[in-house]
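Exercise 4. Each item below gives a protein and its sequence. For each, produce the structure-token representation.

Item: Sporulation integral membrane protein YlbJ (Oceanobacillus indicireducens).
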Amino acid sequence: MNPFVKTILLAAITICLTILLIYFPDEALAASLRGLNMWAEVVFPSLLPFFITAELLLAFGVVKFLGVLFEPIMRPLFNVPGAGSFGWMMGMASGYPTGAKIAARLREEKQLTQIEAERLVSFTNNSSPLFIFGAISVGLFHNAALGALLAAAHYGSNMVVGILMRFYKIREEKPIINKAKKKNNSPILIQAVKQMHRTRSRDPRPLGEVLGDAVLQSIKTLVMVGGFIILFSVIVQLLHLVNFTILFSKLFEGIFFLLGIPGTLAVPLFSGLFEITLGATLISEITTESLLPKVILVSFILGFNGFSIQAQVASILAKTDIRFSPYVFARVLHGIIASILTIIFYKPLYLNYQTTESEIPVATQPTDTFFSYILQQLTNIGPFITILFLWVGFLLFIKYRKNES
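Answer:
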């Protein structure tokens, strides 16, 4: 795009957004509060421990240790170094945008090449089990059995995406891979321990500083994440108020007709392209003859991530030389494959476990599960944890500023 045209376009979008904020102040405030509550109650307290742990494991050389151990698995499967296994596991456990954060840190430490980091980002930004089982299956659909189907489709398709993305720019990577190969006859466990020790020895920071840096960096990232959640919550609400959502969703109705999906799901899907939680909520509220179309669309938006999460990932990657376009391509691919796997797994993982002949669960009362319990506890104590660590981050920031001056 021409730089001048791009400038005019961005300025026009910002002006329109400003006008809408002035015209709909109450609705914008309500949307902001919804986004803020979601971030303070669930997102911040659930992601903070994983972010801090990731920073500490990187500093102490544990990621190097895992890298050596998992090199024989990660390289053939995904064509990335063994260190990528850390991003993959943490991404599945904690959810987005943890995978992008870890990939960016590994790239900063030169543990990945640019292309390897782009491959890693493409399949390490998953939805967490807490969100799939607790928020969506139990919280929205009131059906714990649906969690197994969504999780199998989501994580299975994500692995397929990782395998497919191993061929991304493979010709450009061959010289680097061949050059990096070295003969080492010692046991792999001994190699891993030595690498971990070398990494820790090269970091001169004392333990207290390492911990402080981990907390401060994690809080900074999560504050940025919170800003994007609030921003996109407001944008989706404003688009709905000016009927842009309904207008644009008409494009989906023709495609839905060909696929046999009810046209009433077009508006929820469009909302889900911006923000996953909002889209999944609207989809769950639509009444359909079969549950399958709703689950297909939820699987798609989980794989697509939504523009809100994509913006978070773009902000994290902007500090590195990791390109954003492979991640976007992988998100579309993930959404499509997840939808296909949902159709394949629907009967064996869902219908066969139902006690009634109807595809729509008769009992709509929430079922207590481990993940729904955690989600409930986070909602209760999450704001306290968020406020506490924001104060900790503020104090650490003041302390570091005094030390620099």
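Check: The chain is about 80% helix and 0% strand.
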